[in-house]
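Write out the 3D structure for:
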Amino acid sequence: MAHPVDQDTFPGARWSPRQGPPDTPAGAPALPSLLTAMGRGLRNRCPVCGEGRVFQGFLAVAPACEHCGTPLGRIHADDAPPYFTIFIVGHLLLPPVFWVEKAYQPPMWFHMALWLPLFALVTTLLLRPVKGATVGLMLKLGFGGAEDIPLENQDHIRGGRHDV
């Protein structure tokens, strides 16, 4: 039988997205679908309620949603968003780069003057929405920061015996 996790006994306890946001009454709306959670994150909105903000700075994830209390700060979406962003920007901008080179054969300084600033600008503009969508994805899939909890405490978090 699974027991609820006591935050005082296990201060680093993992919040489970199946529970809904912490401290929500029974019957509260369930976690939205994967596409809804990612879409809300893409728009800098809380993946759970769609009201609060995901970020408190340019790329710093807010500790918790100010509207529903979902602990967004426990989601470590740090490495994947740049890879996703580079993948997207490469697919958007490399075809025009190759087309311009094939059609006009401009000098290299032209490529550097045109494409480097454009790549930097598009990457910077897309990084924040992609990171928000990644936060929504990770929240929906249950990546809630359990890596911060000592292994001996994780049995209690995952519904094991609660002998304390």
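The CA atoms of residues 22 and 143 lie 15 Å apart.
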